[in-house]
């Protein structure tokens, strides 16, 4: 499914950037966003940081970014 793969790639690329992923922009483009419980769990584990509506991978989160992406999308 091309849209799923494109949305996954968007998530992956933006979480690699220092600017992070703007959740509102992601939702506007793809029609969905990671659920708050998934985000909260990854923040609690120290893999993501959230400031307002922007998610950023932490240094540890970047090391396991594929697993972070999988957790956000599943």
Written overview of the protein:
By secondary structure, the protein is of the alpha+beta class. Helices cover 62% and strands 14% of the residues. The protein contains five helices and three strands; from the N terminus they run H-E-H-H-E-E-H-H. Helix 1 (2-16) packs across helix 5. It is globular. The relative contact order is 0.20.
Low-confidence stretches: none
- Strand order in space, largest sheet: 1-3-2
Order of helices and strands: HEHHEEHH
Count of alpha and pi helical runs: 5
Rg from Cα? 11 Å
Q: What distance lies between the first and last C-alpha atoms, to the nearest angstrom? A: 15 Å
Structural class: alpha+beta
Compact overview of the structure:
Helix content is 62%, strand content 14%. It is an alpha+beta fold and 74 residues long.
Secondary structure elements and pairings:
Blueprint: H1 2-16, E1 21-22, H2 23-30, H3 36-44, E2 48-51, E3 54-57, H4 59-63, H5 65-73
Antiparallel strand pairs: 1-3, 2-3
Helix pairs in contact: 1-5
